[in-house]
Amino acid sequence: MADAFYEPDGDWFRATELTRGPWDPGAQHGGPPTALLGREIERLGGGRIGADGPPAFVGRVTFELVRPVPIARLRTSAEIVRPGRSVELVEATLSDEQGVVIRARAWRLRTKEVEFPDPPGRPAAPKLPPPRDPGKPKELFHTGYEVGYHTGMEGRFVSGAFMEPGPATVWMRMAQPLVAGEEPSPLQRVLVAADSGNGVSATLDWGRYLFINVDLSVHLHRMPAGEWICLDAITLPEHNGVGLADAMLFDEQGPIGRAAQTLLVDKLG
């Protein structure tokens, strides 16, 4: 089995079977490719605002999922379309050999220390279950395929369950690196998990309904500390065939941001 979601291949990245999603054995789950594109966004300009400016913080990134992402070779690109001394707007694309599969726009903000009293009402992180026993990883869920995203990630449900309809709170962490030979960045750890909000809090029967997201928007006010990312998620389908998945994001210290997904809802068959 592969030991990373992607392997470098010159200017390209070769997707491994760990990226496989639940809907199609030849298509990727949304988490790994959005994280790969996030990697390009955060590295742009050496990760700084301006040539010699302060470190850049990705405060918001929205991914438009143009078409299913195949388990194939991919290439990333990014450019600053609105430069500035404090904030800059970035546009990025993820492409296969046939063209663009994901488009993204992100705001990168300058970072600096700002002192103020801690505001009241900050929620605490959901309690993390005990760490796994060495050598005994616990699968987040199973999609019917032997290897896929579900084996590249580890998960622990605080409430709800993958096959139990309704809201869910789940802790997730990467069991393998995003790119072979690299330590995942905090942003990559968030993005590889954030696209799972819809799946873990599904309210409709997987065998009877389609409920796939056409986008993913992640707002962050702090990068996570450590490997674990928590999604406190709810999915809201409507009878007009549209839905929304909404997830609060936490690390072990508390809240870090929020993720939202616009859903297409339909009957299967």
Overview features:
single chain, 269 residues, mainly beta, Porin, 13-stranded antiparallel sheet, 4 helices, 13 strands, 42% strand, globular
Please tell me the total number of domains: 1
| Unreliable spans | 133-137
Give the mean pLDDT. Answer: 91
CATH architecture, by name, is Beta Barrel
How would you sum up this structure, described in words?
The chain has one domain (6-112, 136-267): Porin (Beta Barrel), CATH 2.40.160.210. With 269 residues, the protein is mainly beta. Strands 1, 2, 3, 4, 5, 6, 7, 8, 9, 10, 11, 12 and 13 form a 13-stranded antiparallel beta sheet that branches. The longest helix is centred in the N-terminal third of the chain and has 13 residues, at 31-43. 11% of the residues lie in helices and 42% in strands. A hairpin with a 4-residue loop joins strand 11 and strand 12. Mean pLDDT is 91; it is low at 133-137.
